[in-house]
Amino acid sequence: MRESAAVFLAFAALGVFTCAPGVTTGDAGELAAASAVLGVAHAPGYPLFALAARAFGLLLPWAAWTYRMNLFSALLGAAGLSLLGASLRRWGFSRAARLGAVAVLGLSPAWREASSVTEVFALHAFLACLLLWLASCERVLDDGPAAALGLVFGLALGNHQTMLLVLPGLLLAGKARPRAVVCAAWGTLAGLTVYAFLPIRAAASPPLDWGHAVTPEAFWRVLTRKDYGSFSLTTEGAAA
Fold this sequence. Notes:
Radius of gyration: 18 Å
Largest sheet: none
């Protein structure tokens, strides 16, 4: 516990020191706006980010909203590294090995950038580390922990759909107990209900409302990123 707390505090301090003071490039402005007004960002809408960032921002009634969102990323990055270290400890790695792994990842350029700006990637990394931490539990194949694992997985898909890439590993972990897979599947469905945010907020006509997902067709278009070509990261890959 003390080791995990030390990792979090060390990287949280680094994150606070290095995070951007305001809006940056890329999607930072849009995502900050989405969290501020509970709007729908570009496809697939990023509902979990909007809700979680909004909650965090309201807990800190000081500083510019964009700085609060950058700070949100900084603390998520630190929390993710703390969970990673705890997971490696559960799996029997030595202190030197787990702290070395945490340091290499936490000081890498990609991790530092994600932990200093407003983007969905810090939350994405945190949720991936949370999944590792849950998977490292001794009783992960029991009904409750398996459902919790599925719930986090479903919520993670509400932040960034590339979390699907961890699904083979989760299925492999649960193959010895089909009941655990069923519980995890129900948990995943519960987590995916976060996408109800899209039509609910679109119906309220917020200032930011990509796709206006108030009909099943519009909702599906946003969810599947049709304007991006679904499997493309930019509109350059969009279907005609």
